[in-house]
Each structure stands twice: as C-alpha cells, then as structure tokens.
Amino acid sequence: MNLTNTELTDPEVNLLQKGLKHSLPPINPVQATKELIADLSIKIGSNNSLSGQCSQLIKNHPLQPMDSKTRSILTGLRKKLNHENLILTRADKGSTAVVMKRNDYDSKILQFLEDSNCKVASVDSTFNFSSHVSQVRTIVNKSKSIIKNPDAILVPNPVPLRLYGLVKLHKENIPIRPVVSFISAPTFKLGKFLDRVYKSLIDFRSEYSIRNSIELVNKIANVAPPPDSFLVSFDVRMMFPSIPLPPYH
Questions:
Q1: pLDDT given at position 155
Q2: Rounded CA gap, 162 and 86, in Å?
Q3: On the CB side of 131, how many CA atoms lie within 13 Å of its CA?
Q4: Phi, psi of 88 (to 5 degrees)
Q5: pLDDT tens-digit map of 39-98
Q6: String of b and e for 201-233 (b: at least 16 CB within 10 Å)?
Q7: pLDDT in tens, 156-179
Q8: pTM (2 decimals)?
C-alpha cells in the first residue's frame, strides 16, 4: 500500500507484495552463514550436540547469493525511500507492506504519545541501561535455587527497547498501533520463566476470558440469543495507558 505520491516501478511493487517477512537471499552468503551459525550457538548452546549437527547441515547446504536483478531492484528502492524521505512499515492487520512519508509517520507516533499522556525522562535521569543489565544478571545468577540454568534466562546482547508503529489502514485518518518488542530486553527470558512458574503454582482463569476467536465461536455456537438482539464488539481505545499506575523508579 503506497500512501505517498511517489511512483513505484512494477518490479518494486512486486518485491513489496511479498511482504516484510519475505526472506531474500543474502548479498554475502559467507558472512550470512557465519552469523547464522553464531546465532544458533547462542540459542541452543555451543556445547549442545544439536549445535554441531545444525552447523554441519548448513555447511552441506550453502546459501545462494542474491541475483543481480533482485539486488538492483532492492538498491533502487532503498535509494528512493531515502531520497524521498519515506518509511517502509507494515499494516496492523495482515502482512501488507506500507510506504508512507516519514513526517506523517513521526507525527502519528507523537500524536499517540501525546494522547496517552506519555512523558519523556529528563536527561539527568538516574536510570542507566548498562547498570540495569548488570543488576538483572546479578539477580539471576544469585537465584540458582529456583533458576537451575541461569544462562538460559539471560539475554546475550540486550539493547534498549524501541517503539514503532503499525498502520491501521482500516481506521479513519489511518492512525498507528504502537508496538514495543521486548525480545531484546534484559528481562525478556526472565519474565517468560516467571510467567511459567506462576501459572504452575496458581491455577486461575477467569470464566469471562477467551484465548482467541475460535474459542469464542465454540462457546456461543449453541447459545440462542433473544429475539431482536445484536452481537456487539467493543473497540477499547488507549486501554493500557488509561490504567493508572505509580511511577516506576
């Protein structure tokens, strides 16, 4: 979906229609192979026998380089986005790639922050990301009574979280849905571990909650609604920012 006046060539459109999750062949297969093996070692452990098997499988099936035609299309598209000050993002529903002006994208992000009453920490804030990472590592390593394998809980190379927006093409004025990926957070794996522990100790689930739309259909399949009734779906706006919480320090 092109929300700008910038014209895209047919090859560029065809490339974008594959979606942002489409995996293109690497430009440098040798470097890509090394990075893939290194990532596998981090995920499953270098001493794990599975790591050696995966490495051997990758070496036996070498990656093919990107062909010159695709590389030319990709290079031209990147130059066009940079020259026209455009941004490539994804739609909130589905996997549609969206091209829009960077100024419009930034304005929608700032509008969301303003509507949700977010406040930017001052430059003299006492929070330090490196210190936070060290504190998390220290706590995890000292909790061996409940965490048997601390290395599996620690994120190898944590980085500060970043906010980005997905475009709501189906909504009026095309707002954005803010997303913060916590995969790179130093407490990401720790949070998942504690979630499993709590769920194993506390068997609680609200009778009014559902996991997904399939469960909803199964629950109401045999329900006979009253005459002249309507099924209503509510769209809650700014739900989480509207929940009052004390400041985090």
A1: 83
A2: 19
A3: 4
A4: -110, 120
A5: 777 666 656 677 778 777 887 888 888 889 999 999 999 999 999 999 998 888 877 888
A6: eeeeeeeeeeeeeeeeeeeeeeeeeeeeeeeee
A7: 888 888 888 899 888 888 888 888
A8: 0.69
pLDDT tens per residue, range 126-154? 778 888 899 989 988 888 888 888 888 88
C-alpha 59/C-alpha 76 separation (Å) is 32
Residue 87 gets which letter from DSSP?
E
Which tokens belong to 200?
Answer: 């194993």
Compute CA 120 distance to the chain's CA centroid, rounded to the nearest angstrom. Answer: 22
* Phi, psi dihedrals of residue 160, rounded to the nearest 5°: -60, 145
| One-letter identity of residue 56 | Q
DSSP 47-58: TSHHHHHHHHHH
The DSSP letter of residue 218 is H
Burial class (CB in 10 A: 0-12, 13-18, 19+), 186: buried
Which residue matches tokens 């293109």? 24
CA distance 246 to 158: 26
Residue count of the chain, please give it. 249
User: Which of the 8 DSSP states describes residue 222?
Assistant: T
Q: Is the pLDDT of residue 233 over 90?
A: no
Name 166's Cβ contacts closer than 8 Å, sequence gap at least 6. 89, 90, 91, 92, 176, 177, 179
d(CA 103, CA 87): 9
